[in-house]
Amino acid sequence: QQQVKQSPQSLIVQKGGISIINCAYENTAFDYFPWYQQFPGKGPALLIAIRPDVSEKKEGRFTISFNKSAKQFSLHIMDSQPGDSATYFCAARKDSNSGYALNFGKGTSLLVTP
Amino acid sequence: ETGVTQSPTHLIKTRGQQVTLRCSSQSGHNTVSWYQQALGQGPQFIFQYYREEENGRGNFPPRFSGLQFPNYSSELNVNALELDDSALYLCASSAASSSYNEQFFGPGTRLTVL
């Protein structure tokens, strides 16, 4: 059972454009929502993360928007660059005594064209 | 500061064999999590180790087992390999004392089961 649903599966954006990737979750116990970037042959790299007590977090060109009532969150990449071409994963986690397992979406393959 | 390292990089085994994968956590991190990433999918949580004990487990059979050593490094063992075990195995380390318990991934071990 996929606990985090991610869309779109793939995305093509022109250089300088805005890339938007969306995720939805059902488990209201989730309280930490990170985004990871993965290049081919590499492990996922933590990009940015948010807690549900804020609606938006911005770091450089990357912004997470969070809608707690809708149980949705999204990643916005402003001024997208060819170097941003990678697979992006959203994830969600609930803090518990039984570990901090990340539940990942299926990923979005982003291609930024020159 | 040294990041998460994993060995070996690639591995080819045949069905029924056993395999051991290794992970060295990032300096200052005391928690290690293991994930399985099938081709084109998001990582799936296998288990987590903290203070040399299993601290949470995902939906994986008992033939997936692990160890954590006093220096916080870890091993993932898989017995009776099946074709479906072919995947990228990722190790992530984190510091239990950090407020967000961010997980940082290694480059992974690509396991092929023939």
Describe this structure in words.
The complex is a heterodimer of chains A (114) and B (114). Chain A has 114 residues and is mostly beta strands. Helices cover 0% and strands 52% of the residues of chain A. In chain A, strands 2, 4, 5, 9, 10 and 11 form a six-stranded mixed beta sheet that branches. A five-stranded antiparallel beta sheet of chain A has the order 1-3-8-7-6, with no helix packed on it. Chain A is globular, with a radius of gyration of 14 Å. Chain B is mostly beta strands and 114 residues long. Chain B has no helices and eleven strands. Chain B has strands at 5-7, 10-13, 19-24, 31-37, 44-50, 53-57, 64-68, 74-78, 87-94, 104-105, 109-113. In chain B, strands 2, 4, 5, 6, 9, 10 and 11 form a seven-stranded mixed beta sheet that branches. A four-stranded antiparallel beta sheet of chain B has the order 1-3-8-7, with no helix packed on it. The radius of gyration of chain B is 13 Å and the shape is globular. The model of chain B has no long low-confidence stretch (mean pLDDT 93). Chain A binds chain B through residues 6, 32, 34, 36, 41-46, 49, 51, 89, 91, 95-96, 98-107, and chain B through 4, 31, 33, 35, 40-45, 47-48, 50, 55-58, 90, 92, 94, 100-108.
Gross morphology of chain B is globular
Largest interface summary: A-B, 26 and 29 residues
Oligomer description: heterodimer
Structural class of chain B: mainly beta
Beta strands of chain A, count = 11
The succession of helices and strands of chain B, N to C, reads EEEEEEEEEEE
Distance between the termini of chain A: 38 Å
What value does the average pLDDT of chain A take? 93
User: Are there runs of chain A of 5+ residues with pLDDT below 50, and where?
Assistant: none
**Alpha-carbon distance between the two ends of chain B:** 37 Å
State the helix count of chain A.
0
Q: What structural class do you assign from the helix and strand content of chain A?
A: mainly beta
